[in-house]
Amino acid sequence: MTTPFQVDVDVDHRRCIVGAEPLIFHCHHYNLALQQALIDAAYGDFEPVLVGAAASVAHAQLTSLFAQGGVAGTAERARVAEELYRWAGFGTLALAGLGPEGGRLSTEHSHYALGCRAKQGVSKAPVCFFASGFLAGALAAIHGLPDGTFRVTHSACMACDAPACVFELTPAAGGYELYASPGVGALTTHAPRPIPATPVDYDGILGAVSGLPLVGDAHGTIDAFGVHLTRHFANYYNRISFEFLHRLSREYGEEGLAAASETLVEAGRVCAFNTFGGIMQSTEWNALIRPSLASREDWVHGMVAVLNAFGWGRWQVVSVSESDAEFVLHDDYESVGYRAMYGVSERPVSFLAQGGVEGLMTLVYLAGIEDAPTLDADFYTKVFSADVSYQATPTTSAAMGDAVTGFRVERVG
Amino acid sequence: MEAHGRLRARLGRDCAARLRVVYQAPRPLTVADAAMLPEADVRVSEFSALVDGARDHVQLRVGAGLTASYVVGDRELLVVYGKLGGVVPRALVEHMEERLGAMFGPVCWDMDSPDASRP
């Protein structure tokens, strides 16, 4: 099925761009874990940040797409927004009942609500903050109105055992933070490092994974590798993560900064455990990558080869062994986003990547991923609370002005 | 239990907490075996043409309730039942096992698997 919008793949920078917004793959585990961690740990109400970040990227992307494709009619614009949302794996939205005066919408397909049910069971509070913001931003863009025009109330949520998620929009300002999406940000000319000897075919794997039809089905679900993927907004993750970081830093100084950083790195470990683990247990992995793996080091290379198709930037293994490893990331999405949103950083900000490389080394060398363990919460606790662990230290940071972001990972304990 | 030459099955959960069953066929699976579920959407990924040493891959999907996949030439068929946050679609489980039974004979369950109860 062709999409009513243009999808641009910038292979050189490992980017997927739709409507001037970089999109990246993340699964329901990371989406839910990150959201819940930010809500739990933020100083004060964090929901206006979550909703506002979603509204800003949806408004920016759709406004760009409508201009790009000359989409002028509100019905056609609504169709583009619905298709984009479904294609990206967020669920489904039927926007026909909404107009410039707002309206009410319900859906039985919501990535965040169903992901929450799968991970945590019934929730006490609604969880579809991203959907709320997307709706508010999309409706404003569809009618050519500024971001922030609509207030949105998420009055029922399937995560709370409601039969459907319900959203009510009214033309009233307030209720969430307003942000300006920075778009793609400034990218660099990559100077790839030599790849250590490995039978893993990086380019072949990149081509093969990029060619998989990882798009939402009729229910807006991307069911792949044992997880539910989304083609999410890099600028959404960046905004909510860095606003959280700044908020805790403002409120608690260095202690807050350290706590926020650890929260974000931990979300990265969760991502690695579930998404990388799911991929390395998938039949796609067994067909495409596993036949070429001769050592545990090759498993690390194989996973990094796959990651290059995720839109996260160009990831490279500089060296890897059971005792330590070095990774270099060109144009990692966190650093690029930080600089575009806030300017040069005083400290490394690639938290997802830091947790990701720790998680990857843990899966390969401590968790026995080649033996296909059951990847559940108990196993996560067991492997990440063990006496032996992997710790990543940033060596360089593109957010701080370095050419690349680098990590050294060491086995400790 | 000795189950050589029979269709064996092992239960588990995927990392989205959905029922995941690994069926082991008595012979290597072929691309033609994708016809086991005529109603499924079938995707064949010819990885062998893209990466040296890689093998082809088949995925079958029946709505949001069943995803089956295998490596061509392997005997393992991985089936994940149910959608995210949903219940096990027992009718689909029974349907799948009827189809597999028709091809390979009755399912022999591995009772040492982590969740040894039948779905």
Quickly describe the structure.
The complex is a heterodimer of chains A (about 425) and B (about 120). Chain A has about 425 residues and is of the alpha+beta class.
- Strand order in the sheet with the most strands of chain B: 3-4-5-6-2-1-7
Q: Fraction of residues of chain A in helices?
A: 40-55%
Mean pLDDT rating of chain A: 96
Order of H and E elements of chain A:
EEEHHHEHHEEHEEHHHEEHHHEE
Distance between the termini of chain B: 20 Å
Q: Which class of secondary structure composition applies to the elements of chain B?
A: mainly beta
Q: What's the total number of strands of chain A?
A: 12
Which whole number gives the mean pLDDT of chain B? 84
Largest sheet of chain A: 5 strands, antiparallel
User: What amount of the residues of chain B lies in strands?
Assistant: 25-35%
The gross shape of chain B turns out to be globular
Query: How many distinct domains of chain B?
Result: 1
Count the E strands of chain B.
7
Key traits:
A: 413 residues, alpha+beta, Muramoyl-pentapeptide Carboxypeptidase, domain 2, 2 domains, 5-stranded antiparallel sheet, 12 strands, globular, B: 119 residues, mainly beta, Double Stranded RNA Binding Domain, 7-stranded mixed sheet, 7 strands, 13% helix
